[in-house]
Amino acid sequence: MATKESQTQPHEPVRMDKWLWAARFFKTRAQSSRACELGRILSNTIEAKASREVRIGHMLDIRTDNEQFTVEVLALSAMRGPASVAQTLYRETDESRERRLRQAAERKALAALDIAPARRPTKKDRRLIHQFRERGF
Fold first, then answer.
1. Which residues pair with 53 in a beta bridge?
2. SS3 helix, strand, coil % of the chain, rounded to 5?
3. Least enclosed by CB within 10 Å: which of 1, 11, 13, 24?
4. What's the distance, CA 95 to chain centroid?
5. Confidence (pLDDT) at 127
6. What is the three-class DSSP state of 73?
7. Of 48, 100, 36, residue with least CA distance to 69
């Protein structure tokens, strides 16, 4: 028997954190909520809280650890399903896709340089790395 929260009507709004999780931008709802808290999610150019409602037609700017997406919401879902279904929930803009491909090429070129650190990071280094990533730089 399906629960009420897993069933969504075509135009019934869904929480931002649930939709981001269902669309597979984040592996867990906690991660999607955290991204909202850090201001990494913009809904129609406004910072989105995890409880904000997502509706069909909204434009979302989503910044994950490695990539940035600009998508239009095409469908709503509060349930996480297969990746093929998740991809039908949104449409990525052409500019966003080109930017991601360009950044991926840059990362690949940097990886080809094979610059390895002289040593493993210390505990203090790891704390600094985590602080840097949390601030979204």
1. 15
2. 40, 15, 45
3. 1
4. 17
5. 93
6. strand
7. 100
CATH number of this structure's domain 14-115: 3.10.290.10
What does the alpha-carbon distance between residue 62 and residue 13 come to, in Å, rounded to a whole number? 18
DSSP β-bridge partners for residue 46: 43
Query: What are 52's two structure tokens?
Result: 């904000």
Mean pLDDT by runs of 10 across the 137 residues of the chain is 46 87 93 92 89 91 88 91 92 92 86 77 92 79
Report the Cα–Cα distance between both ends of the chain, in Å, rounded: 44
Residue of 47, 46, 98, 89 lying closest to 69 (CA atoms): 98
| Max Cα–Cα distance, the chain, nearest Å | 56
pTM over 0.85: no
Structure tokens, 75 = 């469908």
